[in-house]
Amino acid sequence: MSFPHLLEPLDLGHTQLKNRVLMGSMHTGLEEEKGGFEKLAAFYKERAAGGVGLIVTGGISPNLRGRLAPNACQLSFSWQVKKHTIVTQAVHEVGGKICMQLLHAGRYGYHPFSQAPSKIKSPITPFTPSAMSARQVKGTIKDYATSAALAKKAGYDGVEVMGSEGYLINQFVSARTNKRTDEWGGAFENRAKFPLEIVRSIREKVGNDFIIIFRLSMLDLVDNGSTWEEVVQLAKALEQAGVSILNTGIGWHEARVPTIATSVPRGAFAWVTERLKKEVSLPLVATNRINTPEIAEHILSSGQADMVSMARPFLADADFVNKAAANTPEQINTCIGCNQACLDHTFALKRATCLVNPRACYEMEINFSPTAHKKRIAVMGAGPAGMAFSVYAASRGHDVVLFEAKSEVGGQFNLARKIPGKEEFNETIRYFLEQIKLNKVDLRLNTRLDASVVRDEAFDEIVMASGVLPREIDLPGFDSPKVVDYQQVLSGQVTVGDKVALIGAGGIGFDMAHFLGEAESSTLQPDKWLKQWGIDKTYQDRGGLMAPEKEAVHKQLYLLQRKTSKMGKGLGKTTGWIHRLVLKQHQVIQKVGVNYEKFDEQGLHISIDGQSEVLDVDHVVLCAGQVSNRTLLEEMQSTGLPVHMIGGVDVAAELDAKRAIRQGAELAIKL
Predict the structure, then answer these.
(1) Is the pLDDT of residue 18 over 90?
(2) Which of 178, 297, 625, 639 is the S-S candidate for 471 at Cβ 3.0 to 4.6 Å?
(3) Does one domain contain both 332 and 381?
(4) Residue limits of the NADH:flavin oxidoreductase/NADH oxidase N-terminal domain (predicted)?
């Protein structure tokens, strides 16, 4: 398949973009690290060389109070220009274009100096903002213009004004957060005055030969958000004010609707950009969960947008566009929308990276240079760790043989992809299979590695990536065929009844509850998914919300946990709330502080705080963790060769593909 619309240039008048791909804004954490701008330059340079038409940086504040966190980056003074120049020069060296995003956090600021239109605390931050005075409003507008002028001085090709996701500008526009009674509040014309004055001031300061992108919240997904009529009115006014491109913003950060998680259907929000295309003549950018050139091409060719924005897909693969242009999309390392190494890292104040690409944001530290000492390496297990190591080691020039006892590669990913909303895990398996072929890894399926093979084939090193085994529980009646483990259920070996108890409420337990509770994956049915989460394509009410459509309950599920702590406490920060809401949709009964006693014909016997209870269930599914599969460790050590353990066989406390793939990469560099 070719991608003519994706690769078509876009003329902006004073400049031309080489294709319709915008690398969306992402905060990487490098912005605040010592020497971070050199690393940031390497990061963006690879993406520019990889073919991206236009890059947008992570958010940079126009002033001190607008910072997301106390140490976050701002551009307000001439002495700050120099470090930004490092980035713009690196991008321009390879023919790329880059815009700096201007972002004022408003009430989302994670510090006590935050400001907002009104003194209303956000539900996702601990600090109550102060209400801006009229003088401070005007000063902030001036700060935006000053920051944009400094961005131009630093060599940026333009700026993106962040006007969505619930940040300051969005807070001014929405009646939800703007309770002012002066000229900046009240009627919509007054609330919209703030973004319009910002754009006019920037345009006046930077001239016409400078890109201004405005990220417009087209769908707030919060109560008392903007109406569709207000979205259109603001879009038209922004066009008149001098905006070059309108980017799409979906959902406030406090919205209780998923917008970028892996369970969100691909291109699920392109319809709202398409709707606005009928109202303005500016180039419009579609965004959110666009992660393949095929879906991007469809959005462009069907007229839903003029450009597509992809952020995390460029963490996963810097060469996304070049691979699409070469008509080799199968070689793209696809973003699976997991958030585990990007957004979860950002919220933990750690450097962002990527689960499927550990080089992301580590371009100066992780590189697979050709080896001077070629080795013959046996790898046991073709799960994420084994596949990653094999590909990276082979790319360095080692002779790698990958042994897999089963008939397919993937390991735990083959189970994960069965969970509704995690179908994207198929893409990672597909990618590594392609890389195994390209790097000439000798893949041997249905083949167990043993000591005799190691000796007969003269290997130099052994890498064990044999994964994990489900943890067993030794209690009366737990040897019953009705007590099974999660692997047996997900692999299809066992079909459970209509009443099921799940022992263990970590990530596996939540996934199993979703797997058993959702008859058909709504992720593969976009319209059904929108109704499930209460998203109204007709946009009848403010924020585009409606009452969620309730699904029929197919099974009676109990999710049980020994600990008395909050259930799901260890889930990802940016996705845990989604998993909890999904279980609520499936009416899963959750119990903490559970003591397990026995299983018999009556069901599962438990006690909580000394009170006994019998759960009338057909099956019990064990999701209580796993242990490292080291059954062949002694045999491998008996060969006398160096034995390395990576992935679950090394640490089985949690199923952690991020750590497994990274371990594979780091070991490949060392050997």
Answers:
(1) yes
(2) 625
(3) no
(4) 6-330
Looking at 366-375, 551-560, 647-656, which range is the least confident one? Answer: 647-656
Pair 638, 508 in one domain: no
CATH of the domain at 432: 3.40.50.720
Contact 605/599 with Cβ under 8 angstroms?
yes
pLDDT digits (tens, 9 = 90+) for 505-555: 999 999 999 999 998 899 999 999 999 999 999 999 999 999 999 888 889
- Let me know: does 68 contact 162? Beta carbons within 8 Å: no
Q: Could you tell me if 395 and 425 lie in one domain?
A: yes
Could you write out the DSSP letters of every residue in 93-114?
A: HTT--EEEEE---GGG-SSTT-
> CATH no. for residue 124?
3.20.20.70
Residue 124, pLDDT above cutoff 70: yes
At 221-251, the pLDDT tens digits run 999 999 999 999 999 999 999 999 999 999 9
pLDDT band at 654 (very low <50, low <70, confident <90, very high): low
In a domain, 530, yes or no: no
| Count of domains for the chain | 3
Domain range spanning residue 587? 472-519+554-624
Tens of pLDDT along 641-653? 999 999 999 988 7
CATH number for the domain spanning 584: value is: 3.50.50.60
Cα gap 404→417, rounded to integer Å: 19
The type of residue at 654 is E
Euclidean distance between CA atoms 467 and 415, whole angstroms: 13
pLDDT at 550: 87
Identify whether residues 310 and 455 lie together within a single domain.
no
Instruction: Give the closest residue to 501 by CA, choosing from 601, 621, 594.
Output: 621
In a domain? residue 353: no
Residue numbers annotated as active site: 167
Any domain includes 370: no
SS3 521: coil
What mean pLDDT comes out for the span 263-284? 97
* Helix or strand (DSSP H, E) at 23: strand 21-23
Q: Are 494 and 663 in contact (CB under 8 A)?
A: no
- For residues 613 and 643, membership in a common domain is answered with no
- The dihedral built from the CA positions of residue 257, 262, 265 and 268, taken in this order, carries a sign that is positive
Last residue of a domain, one of 331, 347, 363: 347
- pLDDT digit string (tens) for 131-173? 999 999 999 999 999 999 999 999 999 999 999 999 999 999 9
The Cα–Cα gap between 134 and 181 comes to 11
Contacts of 519 (CB under 8 A, 6+ apart): 554
Q: Which two tokens stand for residue 639?
A: 């060969």
- pTM for the whole structure: 0.95
Which H/E stretch holds residue 670? helix 657-670
- Does residue 312 lie within any of the structural domains? yes
Q: Residue 433 has which token pair? A: 């299979």
